[in-house]
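Entry:
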Amino acid sequence: MVAASPLPLLPVSPDYITWRGLPIAVYQAGAGQPVLLIHSINAAASVFEMREPFQRLSRHFAVHAVDLPGYGNSARPPWRYRAAVYIDLITTILERIGQPAALIASSLGAAYAVMATVRRPDLVNRLVLICPTGIGQLDRPPGIAAYTVYQILRSPIGRLLYRLLTTRASIRLFLTSQAYADPANVTAERLHGFYQTCRRPGSYYAPICFLSGLLNCNIASAFATLNQPTLLVWGSDATTTPLRLAANFVQVRVATKVAVIDSASLLVQDEQPEAFIAQVVPFLS
């Protein structure tokens, strides 16, 4: 079920679509060429990380965003989540938009965006991938070990571990050590924005699938077949998904463009929004 009071993740209130019988939060602002924003996957993920692109790009485009199942203001059923779930939803959103859209997606969400593009190439005209995974990282198909870890994390031990990983102190540590290059950028507002989504009912089901490796997605073959212009945007100081991994994508598809933004880490679109928009708007236009 959707919470009575939606989390204030973006400057507009969510609308809801029904997908697989579940309420999924979607957001829209602006007019013009459609752009769809896809957030990353982690314990504190939601459209909140896309608020800067959402606001700034809506001055030029019809911007859409979605909270993936298990996150943000969308339903959080006790599923054993797999990459296919998210790829299917992104495909559904593209079909609802109904015309070719640009996809802007972050980290593991970028891998799902690539797979949805290969599925419906007629509905995607450009790709912007922010510190993407899927080639050389988080690309190993889940095996017996992943399912064993998942079963452990579904136990009371896993619930306790999740609560320890999502305290304010733990979220701050993640943001300062991995998400932002400058710890000073982890303001009280940002910390609260990421923390609040971890405390909704059912909030631990999707993250434990991520932690166990069930959400891994290998996109090497799919990425090689893309015809859409593709821009990788990488934070120069990214540690979780370091800049050197960009070479994997370029090796697979030489036509791929790479833009490196200084003084930024994993959430480059939020840490350096002006520099991010300066790269993205000309590319989309």
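The longest strand covers residues 22-29.
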